[in-house]
Amino acid sequence: MSGELATGQLERPVTIERDAQGIAFIRAESRTDSAFALGFLHAQERFFQMDLLRRNSAGELAALVGSAALPHDRSVRRHQFRTRAERNIAAMPEHHRKILERYTDGVNYGLSQLGSAPWEYALLRQTPRPWQPADSLLTIFSMYLTLQSHTGEFEARDNALAELLPGDLYQFFAPKGGMWDAPLIGDARGPLSLPQTDIAALVDPQEPLAYGKMESEDMIFGSNNWVVGGALTEHGAAIVADDMHLAITVPNIWFRAGWNVPGTNHEMRGATLPGGPIIVAGSNGKLAWGFTNTTADWGDLIPLEVSANGEQYRTPDGWTPFEVEREEIAISGQPAEILEVRKTIWGPVIGENHLGKPLAYRWVAHDARGANLNIIKLETTANTRAAMDLAPEFGIPHQNFVLGDSEGNIGWTVAGPIPRRIGLDGSRSVSWADGTAYWDGYLPLDQHPSIYNPPSHRIWTANSRTMDGDFLRVMGDGGYALGARQQQIRDALFARQHFSEQDLLDLQLDDRAIFLERWQAQLQELLGNSQGYDDVRDQVANWGGRASADSVGYRIVRNFRLRFIDLTIAPVLTYMQRQDPDFKFRRVNRQIEYPAWEMLVNEPAHLLNPEFESWSALKLAALDAVLEDMAKGGQPLSQQTWGVQNAAKIQHPLGRAVAAVNWFTAMPADHLPGDSHMPRFQSSTNGASQRMVVAPGREEYGIFHMATGQSAHPLSPFFGNGHRDWVEGNPSPMKEQATTYTLTLR
For the whole model, what pTM was predicted? Predict the structure, then answer.
């Protein structure tokens, strides 16, 4: 951490300064040298994490951890991301390729300078494998696997529902939005119409119903970002707020760092992804930016017309044999397994639809434009308009790119290439065999969805639908989140006319249960007409209106809603699983709030689950199931708070298999406020992997939270530093503080 190291690999000396929290700032005279230094830091603090990221997308985890990872490797290896990464690097501009190579050199040098391999390898009885330039693109592909579906999951399930359910029931149970929508362009959707079909027609009276266990769109993990323009700030610069919600593990996915950009007066600061030489979200002193997942549609499933012998498929040029490649999957402690990957002119065969037809997958991630280093161009970009113009070139999973500059300009666009669909809109899987449906390259910049300096001086996103009209048509729907969280952010932004950095942090920490207020009122009415629930009635009446860690009533209300949904949609789930035993709702019921609310309030007799004699009986059964589940803790109701259920479970990946690992690596089991449909999203294992608030040029006033700490090693002084600020919401600084350690690389 301090002193000098003679690497023999640098053009000029590089200085790495770290503060007491381990936040690093690199000073170098060339961009390749700063890339080397960042690689050195990543390897020193996070190499095992980097190894997991590259193996995750390459389908090479079983070689490290054994046969438990085989199902994952088989599924992912069909995409052949390692081969694609090597292809993409060969196509890169020489300057970008050189940065990746120097970053790689830094990683391998940093690994060599450790006194011993990271402790995880001793536990697994493995030896670290050197880093390669392609591995850095594999970390990008790992983010694709996190943020998009590698099997076209939403499209497959939505198609199955649309084709198998009676039409009016499909329209009711799979709506495309409603009153909670808060798009940047367009309006909320109107109310639902009740279907005519009797839901009892879906089930056989002799058939047991299939019930879920509180699995709904409520457990969809999203992100938030927003920006306010200079007209709303005292200093005239825009302020960007960004909190990316991901799985929170030890270590955190992000590593905080900064560096000077040689030849400019720009200084980078923000969140890096270990494995790559770039700032993902942050500021360069003139421009600040953040990302949330668009949740739009960036891939298409193609039902194949296959020959009788199964060896050919039909294309616009006639019958064509499948291309078959053999992939060897190494398995720790066992012989390797051979996987045959069937490929088409459109993409790999990734499975079958509900009718048993083979499906090929056309996905942006497969193309050369899907992963690259072009986001590095933001380092020298000084204003919002110029940065937005770069967005279609970014080779990353498609993001809501929200940004602002030191002059007060703000903008939104989609970061990533958008396919130009011909003959299809992406919402339904159609054959491409006759040539009328296909992708015709990617949209040019002038057709890319974007918003620049809106009259309101406000932009907001939260994984929900952002667009309407033509912009929505080109983006499609990949399973948008319910709009409640996005709407709460929008309304809070319009409730004020002036903002500081602290004001935006306060909004990030907003845990008001606005979305559940009407559910609380309905549950209170139910309890008022029911006997034997005195304690419950008091808790619900005094729930506090927030997802507070100490609220019992909040826990009852939110879980009542989930259980009510599970009981009401059981006939639909049962019907779908009769047609397709593996069917699950998952992304396809993210808008289930709308039919659930209609049934709760209007109690349509023909939509009542036939296992219940009345809607009141169903509602009380939902409540009883919640109370029974809470009672399993063995504590009185007054102690069964939301925080008890929402206690942090932040563990090292190996802690799931080796309990002793948790003893020295897991973060404290803090009772956490926040929940799904509010800005302060929080669950036991997922939440704000970072929170950032920054006005470019005012980084010293910026705020940055990160769960866990900078280092993956429990004996490091940086292991848990900063975690308490994340838990408590303290305004910890974005900019590195006084230098505690200085290391010079020569």
Answer: 0.97
